[in-house]
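DM from R.C. (forwarded with permission)

"hey, sorry to bug you on a friday — could you get me a structure for this? deadline for the figure draft is monday and I only need the backbone to look sensible"
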Amino acid sequence: MTTHRGTWTLRDRAQNIMRHLPVTVAPGTAALTVRLAYSRDAGVLDLGCLGPAGFRGWSGGARDEYTITAGHATPGYLPGELEPGEWQVLLRLHRVPPDGLPYEVTATASATASAPPAAAPAPPRPPRPPRPQLPEVDGMRWLAGDLHAHTVHSDGAYTVDELAALAVSRGLDFLAVTDHNTVSHHPHLPASADRYGITLLPGQEVTTDRGHANVFGPVGWIDFREPPDRWLATAEAAGGLMSVNHPLGGDCAWRQPLTTRTRLAEVWHSGWWDRTWGAPLAWAQAWRPDVVPVGGSDFHRPGADALPGAPTTWVLADGDPTDEATVRAALAAGRTAISAGPGAPLLLRLGDELLALDADGALLGYPDGRHRVVRGDRCRLPAGDGLHVLESHRMEVIALCS
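My reply, with the result:
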């Protein structure tokens, strides 16, 4: 057993927010259990793990304990053989009070591994609610989804199966599962997608104290300790995409330097409670002129954030709608729209035209500041270049499209 104890100070945090505590794993070790003890009333310490070969897991502030074995691991961590050598317990000094934060980390290596915990039963596949027929565009079809959601693999309450079933019950065609700083959920996505008839995008929310970004695609683990330019370069080199998340989101607003600004941006987040507040649109227009707006519920659990699909991101998909690469290709091409929900009023681009659905009496705002009144439940209007916005008479945002 290895024990590290002490008191983290504000000076420690200022010098280096990330700390690595060494643990020696001997040959023949079958299980490694790490326990963190500190006063959660006083501060926040985030927890993770590196093995000699690299990343083995992250749970942030969601857990104070994890176990890794060859056959199973605590959600957020990767199962697999425990390579002998020096391992690292990762600690991020997220919140440290002025008088310091006492802590104790205990790492226990065992020659035997206990049986894995019983898996939660998979919920039944729910019926998908009906949705209005949407026009195809040159053989491409519109898909409804959500690009930001969490499971038990980080700080969410639902398993991957439970999240997939909930998304189907909400009428979604696709969902990105974006647990914080981990990819331990990725191996579970294909079976769950088949079980529930929904396209599940492998994602990860790269999470720091100065901003969050979603990376979409099977690109491997993105090292959140690196600068954001490295996140983007790593994602794009592997064929993935990156989106800046909730850029005006309170204590997790985007404050990171980024040499090349991402084209994708989470303009509409569930934290946009009052959509007469124009700051998210102002931010998007200042971010880059060809910004591709996306939306995300940031679902963690019922009663927090919003349910999947609130808001809904729509993509115009060219190819197999059950293939997550098809959704990523539509995002990369900028074929997106956002609505408040799967059945809410909608604004879609159909080539050189816009289609406003269920928005009679709303105002269509053009990129150059002009407005037109929408007449009828299926109203076609000319399109411009850039971000288009449907607004109520109160200037409340109803829908967006790129």
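R.C.: lifesaver. The chain has two domains: 2-110, 141-344.
me: no worries. The chain has six helices and 24 strands.
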